[in-house]
Amino acid sequence: MIDVEGVTRRFGSREVVKDVSWHLPRGTLCALVGPDGAGKTTLLRMLAGVLTPTTGTVRIGGSWGYMPQRFSLYEECTVEENMALFGALQGLPKDELRRRSSELLRRHDLLSFRERLAGKLSGGMKQKLALSVALLPDPEVIILDEPGTGVDPVSRREIWRALYGMHREGRTIVVATPSMDEAQLCSFLIFLSRGRVREQGTPEALCAAYPLTILRLAVPGRRNLKTLLEACSFEECHAFGTAWHLAVRHEEAARKTLEEALQRAGIASYELSRISPSLEDVFIRWEEG
Questions:
Q1: 70 phi and psi, to 5 degrees?
Q2: What digits encode the pLDDT tens for the residues 218-235?
């Protein structure tokens, strides 16, 4: 359904995307994961045909719809006017346009706001309007750039509920996200870092392939343990909420080192357990490795 082969994009002498390749079968819900500046937006714009690769090829087997990260509809037009304008630009017959527009606005709880100016919508409603416009031609492939960023939790949940509905219909979806919570909802992940694909696979396979052991340390009433833990020279050490995740190669030796360090610091009460790696653990290793 989507084939990306050896794609590179340069802006002047700067390579933003570097020799990226992947294949997504029909019906995949794929998260393109990476920090700001990883090249996610540039790559999605090439998928959508907005940018041309400097080298390499992109092939999409079917019609597609694209929802950019920044709201790009006409704020001085109403919801209904935006739907009508973009539907006409895409060549939809009037009867089909009216039917699709009403159906999508109703599905995304925007029908009662159809006469409101787009510029007067909340952030979440703007995102749902942009999604509705992208879906007007009933595309087989949907490309979305961080649809859940900058919106309230309720709107974010509604957007993902809509994506799951489209996934169940058999559509192929590529969604860029910096959120591991959102990535966990997808059936396939592509980790992008500094313009390159660092790893790709299902969430389960990526977590299973994690090469280190994760120890979770929780110390009641003590959160600032960074200096103490860094002195232990573990492979990785990161705060997760009120606890710490320690990535180690040799669990028994690491436990002994940690217990001795805590004892020297006068810390007698703590919880230490072995846990399965999370996607965030995997992401941090690939980003910092």
A1: -90, 135
A2: 998 766 788 899 899 899
Tokens of 266: 């006068």
Average pLDDT, rounded, for the chain: 92
What amino acid occupies position 204? E
Nearest to 3 by CA among 43, 57, 53: 57
Q: In angstroms, rounded to a whole number, what is the distance separating the alpha carbons of residues 135 and 99?
A: 13
To 5 degrees, how large is the angle CA 129–CA 117–CA 132?
10
Amino acid at the residue 188: F
Q: Given CA atoms 138, 140, 145, 147 in this order, what sign does their dihedral have? A: positive
pLDDT of residue 223: 61
Give the strand pairing for 243-248 and 55-60.
Answer: unpaired
**97-117: string of b/e by CB count within 10 Å (b at 16+)?**
beebbeebbebbebeebbeee
**Per-residue pLDDT, 284:** 80
User: Kindly report the CA angle at 225 between 220 and 228, in degrees rounded to 5?
Assistant: 130
Indicate the helix (H) or strand (E) that contains 23: strand 14-24
Measured CA to CA, the distance from residue 197 to residue 251 in angstroms comes to 30
Question: Rounded CA gap, 31 and 22, in Å?
Answer: 13
Residue 237: strand, helix, or coil: strand
**Long-range contacts of 116-123, Cβ-Cβ distance < 8 Å, separation of 24 or more:** 116/78, 116/79, 117/75, 117/76, 117/77, 117/78, 118/71, 118/73, 118/74, 118/75, 118/76, 118/77, 118/78, 118/79, 118/82, 119/75, 119/76, 121/79, 122/152, 122/155, 123/150, 123/151, 123/152, 123/155
With 0-12 / 13-18 / 19 or more C-beta atoms within 10 angstroms meaning exposed / middle / buried, residue 7 is buried
Nearest C-alpha neighbor of 217 from the set 201, 204, 200, 234 = 234
